[in-house]
TrEMBL record:
It comes from the Eukaryota. One of its GO terms (biological process) is glycogen catabolic process. Residues 7-442 form the Glycogen debranching enzyme glucanotransferase domain. It comes from Salpingoeca rosetta (strain ATCC 50818 / BSB-021). It holds the Pfam family hGDE_central. Coiled coil: none annotated. This is Glycogen debranching enzyme. PANTHER family: GLYCOGEN DEBRANCHING ENZYME. Residues 1020-1180 form the Glycogen debranching enzyme C-terminal domain. One of its GO terms (molecular function) is amylo-alpha-1,6-glucosidase activity.
Length: 1194
């Protein structure tokens, strides 16, 4: 948004609400609005400026197309032109003759004034007795209340031998009056007739239809479906479907008309009984609601004290307005239905709200019965608008309100949606779309009283709400307020920033909120917070979101100005006005000078990058708020001493602290406190005049000159105490310790440039790029991975993996072990996580990673680089360490990942995110293995079948697994020498033409599988380019292997037919079922630990009898690609299926894909969480997809 000619964010907004009636005539606005600008507010929120209805409330709009004539004059066109000119001029910066202000206005969508002229032509725009006939009984009850009130006022109602009193003084009077009302009206009104079926009439209708009816043959019983409500409502509008009812009775065996009538009568009496009971409940609820209203309005001393009950001030407020020109209010008899004397289309339901009801629900609906139950807290000056489900339901209203919205958006930079929570979402969305069609960058603010964060988010996203509005005065203690500041103040100090190695998924978060120290339609702090006006707004000013208040708050007005029919005017800005002046406002008035300073601080903090906040609830009265710039480590802190009414203030001054931090308190920006706690209030009928109190206010002073602040130490050992008075505020700057800042800057540069080549003197880079490029696959395996069993071997000195207290051991010793944990913590910004606590407590984890890198020559440069970073990292502020740690790990991991992908893959092969994930995951398995026999000299390496179960020792290396994974994990990534070494190692132990399944270090191989030889030979073919044709093939999901490597054995038609069957029966949630689910031996859940009586699954016997294996997925979809008639469709099918595997690899801490899944893709706890063949076979699939795409493109 543009403010004073500059583009600003919501975090810089300081909003002040003004009432149009108190601004006075339009010609006097400039000097009155100048007060807001002089107080440091940069945004003006106008309550509605449109023509007001008879109540003189700005929110009860009489005509949405006109401005209020008493303010802008009677010439509607000229009024709008003048207002546009004013907004443009006031929006200019001060040096160009303006005030640098941004303007917002309310948009009111739920109601219109009951004296709105267009209601006569378009009553269908509202809920009338015609458009909502279910409201008719509520209207009858409403009119009875009016007639009863009229008679009580005239002393004409007797009950139990007494005249019903018009003056209600006690709750006993209330009960007596209500007893009298229901005694006089219950039988006379006969409200049940609006709901029940007229039994005699229904029987007569059925008898008329009985002779011609044919028996129903469907078995339909007598039930509620046989009753319907007549269009238009009215008494006994519930009718039976006579023809259907007669047919049903005959179908039930009734051939005698009288017996059928008796059966129907029994059914209808039972049906009506439920309705009588429901109406009794409704009337009980109505009585309770009426009692609460009467007690509040006439008995409670804090209520409005309405006085006598009369026709003009009825017992309770009325729910309906008669907007007809020919209205007749005379109704003299409770037993005479008022529906006969009115035109129902002009009887309109007034708007309001229902206590403790979801405000997003339609309380006018037939199901809610809220008007009949008298549950609606009504706004008697306005009628509720009826939009329906779409513009087709009420075209004129939609067009009218969209036109109103577009005009507002063309004049103002922002809209505040009035009562957004009770505006139907589809209506709000359409109106905001209309606004954005005129002003795409329009600011949208709204209050949402949904009592559900999920609903708030839904409204915010649907309507495109920029910021919610929350009232600070909704809190009841300093603790409540500090919690609000913490929740909506912005990101906490030390928060995480984006990670370079991967965009993190969007996560649930609460909507942004602008905090209002006071609002225009609720109580002022003076009624709730004892001399804490300034602490409220000073602490709010520290948040990294919008803030605001309402005019006269800073002038210490005791009671808020009335929204309805307010006569007093705001005082204008008069530069030399004294603090007691009735004529004007200046720096001396109230707390204006202090508020201006805090508003300025608020804007400057946002402009200068102070994006983080820390809230400290020190004790029952004292709260502090700190804003920090995460780049420069500069901080600004505000302390406030606030006392809510009802809390103990006998302690008076108090000392708080000591507080420790690193740096220097360089300047006190504001210190303000009341010199006395008694406020003199002046009552003025013509002007809004606040209280007079003596405040000490000092700005931009040396800390030594502030008696409230006691400072000791300095640099890294700074400490301070504060001695504060109730109502005091102190705000100061903290400049960081230079040494800590230098270390922080150096670390930031080191991690930013890590692994990037330094091409010239002016390029940011380091000398690690060459060392990264020289790393082997085994180096990568060491730097990134090595699970606990691998790292516990003698070759690794039994070091294991790092154990995070409160979380547990990481999955890997390499840097990838901590990456998934960092991703989780960063995505949630979980600064309280065990990882963050460990990082703040010491530098052990970073030191462990560095030490791990030192163990291998090819990774030692990484250990040395980390040593250099750690030497500086240990000196940065503790609260910054989790974020810096995450960046160090992420940048180093990103450099390794980038290097691995660049070296191992073609520039055009597997370049997408999932392909990169798989390529890096393939490095998990190929690493050092001191027990593995190699055919020639050099480092001893092997391929693990899966981690952690097959990580080390005699169980590490398997023939079938190795050669199933070899092409994907080694050949496609161009690790030819590594593949050759493995082939030669297994060739040394071939016996009688068999390749061992379990290698067992070459000392005791197991020759217990035939297909290991086949995959071994296939690997040789892949390495040397053999063209040997294979005729052997396997059934079940394995047949796809033969289809992939020997497609000539199959005709396309039969191949696709078989693959279709596999899609139907074998493709599971995450893998290929190893057996048809219809097979009697199908057992899909593998639990190796089970040792029960069922032999079919005991001790993992069903390993091949139903669990979903992942590696055959690669062959299945590769076969699809080979035989597809439409390759593009086959590629799309494969990618859709692989999306679930991409999601899995990104969320598992193992950063891989498992050996197998259980039924429907559920987790198999006994599976290896990351398996070589699963990775390798999917890499082969992605490789084939890439080649197929390339051929399609060509």
């Amino acid at each position: 948004m543009m403010l004073g000619g500059k583009e600003v964010t919501i975090a810089r907004l300081a909003i002040q609400t003004v009432l149009p009636t108190s601004l006075g005539p339009f010609e006097e606005w400039w000097e009155r609005i100048l007060v807001s600008a002089k107080t440091g507010f940069n945004t003006i929120h106008f309550c509605p400026l449109q023509e007001m209805g008879g109540s003189r409330s700005p929110y009860s709009i009489r005509d949405q197309t006109k401005l209020e004539p008493s303010i802008f004059g009677s010439d509607a066109g000229k009024a709008k032109e003048n207002l546009r000119d004013f907004l443009l001029r006031a929006g200019k910066p001060e040096n160009k003759g303006g005030m640098g202000l941004f303007f917002i206005i309310d948009a009111v969508y739920n109601h219109t004034s009951k004296d709105t002229p267009w209601l006569l032509d378009h009553p269908e725009a509202c809920y009338s007795l015609t458009t909502a006939p279910h409201l008719q009984p509520a209207f009858v009850l409403d009119q009875a209340i009016w007639l009863f009130s009229k008679r009580v006022g005239a002393g004409a109602i007797e009950h139990k031998g007494r005249t019903v009193p018009a003056d209600v003084k006690t709750e006993e009077d209330v009960h007596f009056v209500l007893d009298a009302f229901f005694a006089h009206t219950h039988e006379a009104l006969k409200l049940w007739e609006f709901f029940v079926v007229d039994v005699d009439a229904a029987i007569a209708d059925m008898k008329t239809a009985f002779a011609r009816a044919k028996p129903d043959s469907t078995g339909q019983p007598l039930d509620e479906s046989l009753v319907h409500t007549r269009t238009g409502g009215g008494r006994f509008s519930a009718r039976i479907r006579a023809d259907t009812c007669a047919a049903v009775l005959k179908g039930l065996g009734f051939r005698d008309q009288d017996k059928a009538a008796k059966e129907l009568k029994s059914f209808l009496e039972e049906y009506n009984l439920k309705l009588y009971k429901q109406l009794d409940e409704d009337m009980a609820a109505a009585r309770t609601a009426m009692k609460h209203t009467i007690v509040w309005e006439r008995v409670n001393p804090r209520g409005p004290q309405k006085g006598r009950i009369t026709a003009q001030e009825p017992l309770v407020y009325l729910y309906f307005a008669n907007v007809s020109k020919d209205r007749q209010d005379e109704w003299s008899d409770f037993a005479t239905c008022p529906l006969t004397t009115v035109d129902p289309k002009y009887i309109l339901a007034c708007n309001g709200w229902v206590w403790n009801m979801d405000p997003a629900k339609d309380f006018v609906s037939k199901e809610k019965r809220s008007y009949l139950r008298r549950e609606v807290i009504i706004w008697g000056d306005s009628v509720k608008l009826r939009y329906g489900d779409s513009p087709d339901d009420n075209p004129w209203l939609w067009n009218h309100m969209c036109s109103y919205t577009r005009e507002l958006a063309s004049m103002f930079g922002g809209l505040r949606i009035d009562n957004c929570h009770s505006t139907p979402k589809h209506v709000g969305q359409a109106m905001m779309d209309a606004a954005r069609a005129v002003n795409p960058d329009i600011l949208v603010l709204a209050e949402l009283f949904t009592q559900s964060e999920e609903t708030d988010i839904e409204y915010t996203n649907t309507l495109g709400i920029t910021s919610l509005l929350l009232e600070c005065m909704s809190t009841h203690s300093a603790g409540d307020y500090s919690a609000m500041l913490h929740r909506y103040g912005g990101v906490p100090v030390g928060s995480f920033s984006a990670l370079p190695h991967r965009p993190l998924p969007l996560v649930h978060t609460h909507p942004r909120a602008t905090l209002l120290a006071a609002s225009h339609d609720n109580e002022f702090p003076a009624t709730k917070v004892w001399r804490s006006d300034l602490p409220l707004i000073a602490l709010a000013a520290m948040i990294h979101n919008g803030i605001g208040s309402t005019r006269c708050f800073e002038e210490l007005l005791q009671q808020n100005l009335a929204v309805v029919n307010e006569k007093r005017k705001y005082r204008p800005w008069v530069e030399d006005a004294g603090k007691d002046s009735l004529e004007g406002v200046s720096d001396r008035t109230g707390i204006i000078a202090a508020v201006r300073r805090m508003n300025t601080i608020h804007r400057q903090l946002a402009a200068k990058g102070f994006t983080e906040i820390y809230i400290d609830h020190i004790d029952a009265h004292c709260v502090s708020a700190t804003r920090r710039n995460p780049d420069t480590l500069e901080e600004v802190t505000t302390f406030a001493y606030m006392v809510y009414r009802g809390h103990d203030i006998s302690t008076g001054e108090k000392t708080i602290g000591p507080f420790k931090r690193s740096g220097e308190i360089s300047r006190v920006l504001l210190n303000a406190f009341p010199n006395a706690y008694h406020v003199e209030y002046t009552r003025c009928e013509r002007a809004a005049v606040g209280g007079t109190v003596s405040y000490s206010i000092r700005e931009d002073v040396d800390p030594a000159a502030v008696k409230s602040l006691l400072i000791g130490g300095g640099g890294a050992d700074l400490w301070y105490r504060l001695r504060m008075r109730p109502g005091e505020v102190i705000c100061f700057e903290v400049t960081p310790d230079k040494s800590a800042l230098d270390h922080h800057t150096a670390v930031a540069r080191a991690i930013r440039t890590f692994g990037r080549p330094n091409a010239g003197d002016h390029d940011e880079g380091d000398d690690h790029a060459g060392a990264l490029a020289a790393m082997t696959a085994v180096d990568m395996n060491h730097a990134l991975f090595r699970c606990i069993r691998e790292n516990e071997t003698a070759a690794y000195r039994g070091d294991g993996v790092y154990d995070v207290p409160g979380y547990g051991p990481l999955k890997y010793a390499g840097i990838a072990g901590v990456v998934p944990l960092i991703e989780t913590v960063v995505s949630q910004n979980d600064l309280g996580h065990a990882l963050c606590n460990n990082v703040r407590a010491g530098d052990w984890l970073l030191g462990y990673i560095a030490a791990h890198m030192h163990k291998r020559a090819g990774t030692r440069f990484l250990g040395e680089a980390l040593d250099g970073i750690i030497a500086r990292y240990k000196h940065i502020p503790t609260n910054a360490k989790p974020e810096v740690f995450a960046q160090i790990v992420s940048h180093v991991y990103s450099a390794l990942r980038r290097t691995a992908v660049k070296r191992l893959l073609d520039t055009t092969t597997l370049t997408e995110g999932f392909g990169r994930d798989l390529a890096v995951a393939a490095l998990q398995f190929y690493g050092t293995d001191a027990a593995f026999l190699m055919p020639e000299g050099g480092e001893v390496v092997s391929m693990s079948a899966g981690l952690p179960h097959f990580a080390a020792g005699w169980m590490r290396c398997w023939g079938r697994d190795t050669f199933l994974a070899l092409r994907g994990c080694l050949l496609i990534p161009k690790l030819f020498d590594e593949a050759k070494h493995l082939i030669l190692a297994f060739a040394r132990v071939v016996r009688h033409g068999l390749v061992p399944n379990l290698f067992d270090n070459g000392n005791n191989p197991r020759y217990n599988c035939r297909d290991a030889t086949w995959f071994f030979l296939q690997s040789i073919k892949d390495v040397v380019g053999s063209t040997h044709r294979y005729t052997d093939y396997q059934l079940r999901p394995n047949v796809a292997i033969a289809m992939t490597v020997a497609p000539d054995l199959f005709t396309p038609a039969r191949a696709n037919h078989h693959l279709d069957i596999c899609d139907q029966f074998l493709v599971g949630g995450m893998g290929m079922r190893t057996l048809d689910p219809h097979d009697w031996n199908y057992r899909p859940n593998y639990v190796n630990s089970y040792d029960g009586p069922d032999k079919a699954i005991a001790k993992g016997w069903n390993y091949h009898q139903g669990p979903e294996w992942l590696w055959p997925v690669g062959f299945h979809f590769r076969a699809r690609l080979k035989f597809a008639k439409e390759r593009g469709k086959a590629i799309h099918q494969a990618n859709r299926y692989l999306a679930r595997h991409e999601a899995h690899i990104q969320r598992t801490p193992w950063m891989g894909l498992p050996e197998l899944f259980n039924e429907n893709g559920s987790e198999c706890p006994d599976s290896c969480p990351t398996q070589a063949w699963s990775i390798g076979c999917l890499i082969e699939l992605l490789h084939d997809i890439h080649e197929q795409r390339s051929s399609i493109s060509v």
